[in-house]
Design goal:
alpha/beta, 5 helices, 7 strands, about 30% helix
Amino acid sequence: MARQAHSPAPGTAPAPRPALLTRRAPAVPGAAVLFLHGGRTDSRDRSRPWHLAALRMRPFIRTVAGGTAQDDVVIGSVRYRVRGWNGGDEDPLRDTRRALAELSRRFPGIPTILVGHSMGGRAALRAADAPQVPAVLALAPWCPDGEPVDHLKGKHVVVLHGDRDRITDPHASQSFAHRARAAGARADVTLVPGGDHAMLRHSTYWHRTVASTVTDLLAALPTRPHTPEPSTDPAR
């Protein structure tokens, strides 16, 4: 006999889907890298994994995962509810905070590096106020005038931006990094000669640089927690 499906009670909203998508989860993780793809300024359309902004990040996820294949690093990404930032709703930022909370519940105490592109770069930079986030790698980030920087004190911020980007402003990224340094962050910005917003021109450089930067950021983390080696003492 088929099991009868139960509908939610009238007036009860369905539980939101998890915001954290785990791509790799070691048995004893010591750190995490969380990816945030781009989106739109305004859109209430549901975000789908086959949208171009999401697909654009997959090669970077694979490259970073391959570069840390023997490491104790969780690889994950943020699942957005909708495609847009949507003004004061700041939807991708809300989703990123949910993903970080889910990650903390599953893997308490591990430092998390955020890697975000475009709108995801803006969300990553904002979400760096979380204590578990010591560093952010922002790729062609959307940095409007007046973006907050005070919360980045003591954080490490790396920005890569193509100098031919016509979607987000590379000069705004430079200005943001300057203000972040003044606020006490360690902030570095590199303009990619000939680089476009989609990171398709000089793609090999983009992938290689993202992988090496994440490796360096992981190496700079404090000593990670680890599980002691099994004892060889026969009395135990």
